[in-house]
Amino acid sequence: MQVIPRRADAVTTAPLSLLQRRMWHLCTAYPGTASPIVALVNRITGPLDVPAFTAAVSAVCDRHDALRTTFAIGADGPTQIIAPPGGIETELVDFAGGPDGERRAHELVGQLTGALLDLDGGQLVRSVLIRLAEDDHVWCSAVHHLLADGESALVIEREVAAHYRGAVLPEPPIGYADFAVWQLAEASGGEDLAYWVEQLSGVRVLELPYDFPRPPIKSTRADQVDLHLDAVHADAVDRLARARRATPYMVLLTALLTVLARRSGQDDICVGTPVSGRLLVETEDAVGLFGNMIALRADLSGAPTYAELLARVRAVTIAGLGRQSVPFGQVVAAVDPPSDPSRTQVFQVIFALHTQTAGPAEPGLDWRPFGASAPQILHDLVLDSWRGPSGLDITLRYDTGLFRPETAAAMAEQFATVLRAMAADADQPVFTGVAGG
Fold this sequence. Notes:
This protein is an alpha+beta fold. 34% of the residues lie in helices and 22% in strands. The protein contains eleven helices and 14 strands.
């Protein structure tokens, strides 16, 4: 069994992990107007003890070296600089009693989550508590993606709640610096890397019909379209998955591939999907960039039915997930696709299925997500979906330098239409039977 060794407590510097190196490349090759930021934004209603809450946030930052990290850029590239435990100041903003407090809170959250952060020694972690009323607050934790991922946000949320109620937590098994050193030492790729090279060699770029000419340098400007499929249709997706020995994720990905194929006319399409990367027990409760990407390349040739395409997607997904430990940056380096500053390498579309989770259960307090503005994106399209008790929520984020809002709305609706058609009759051919562009 693999074990990540813990380094000495007084670690002050560390190399970048392979995952961070890939993210660093994305941040510097496509700088855009905002940094990739992992945001945790909750509205907390009830009698909040503000000093106890800010102390809890500070204690969590002390627990995790990633939340005390900045970067220094030297002749050999960037290095992680880890500050000693010293807490973090949560900025207090009071909008209570004034006009449009909730609107102003949304604007401030948008500024925090859409900021362009300085990677050379700049502040990469912020915590802000906005007071809307005596018993109504919004907490925004904004962390650069180099230091955290989506799972990290859940860890931070759980631990802040635990500290707030006075729980005593065990020390984290490792710090992120330990993981970075271990990953660099263990990286070899082997048979898994060979699989990715064979799978992705010669991968084609996706050429969708764009509303605007592609700029010479990829922008990160984005907006989003939101849709909701009710529980009846979401349950139909689940039934189709069970009937075909697949998962809802595979059904949704099949629907997305169908939309992309119909719009592009291509039958060889690659879509990226995030994976947690937390394959070892030591990483489960750690904060840091463990999330990886895998590239799923689908073959839509030969006039398949939905069921046949779903079977192909199932096979490629299982194979890819079984080899998810190879850092995607290592895959890109080995495949060596052409470098084009106007688009991302290997894939230009990302798909993810998330599970909706409630906020921490705190006596007297209600934690609910507080919507943030559409984040910037590095890819042309990002389709996120959430399965909850009320059905399926779908968000299509799109590059506004490539697509008009009405085009994005049409793509999102087409995705929903294909899903309904698949669930109604999976033996229909992919390229006929459903209109939608």
